[in-house]
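Quick one, T. Sequence first:
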Amino acid sequence: MKFYQYCAKCGQRYSDFQIQEMKQGVSRIKCESCGLAIYNNPRMAVAAILVRDGQYLMSRRGIEPFRGTLDVAGGFCDYGEDSLESLQRELKEELNLDESTYDIRGILGTMHNWYNNGGREEEQYSVGTVFYVLETEREDFEVLDDVSGYEWIPLGTVSEDIGFPELKVFLTEYMDQLVEIAG
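Structure tokens:
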């Protein structure tokens, strides 16, 4: 939860105790003055695992956190978007892919992780990510937005150069299913 100090509705300062609770990850706080409750819900994100000819695509992060390490294409869902709309937008922003250049083969599941925005403790978010498995005929991509490159990884292997520890665990645990879906 972002560590707010003032109520968004009435402007009352939260107590030192409430601010400390936010830092410890309490699920919600309630303004003692007006009663507005702020919930510490996870942010929703989507990720794309593109597969082609027995390989899957990993992008190279162009920004922090974990700049220069491998990741999969994707990102946070914007307000009002469903997960498929977010996926389509992120693929267009990061790899210049549109809907006609891939087919959805399946969904692997959801990964939970902590996203620390730029290393600032007050901007650490709980994130739930839905993984789409997409088949594409494309081999080359135009890298845009926060991606600095990409590489194809053989199915069945997990690179050591993955930045987010939770992603490495997720791919390891789901690799057999990914291979089966990509089959």
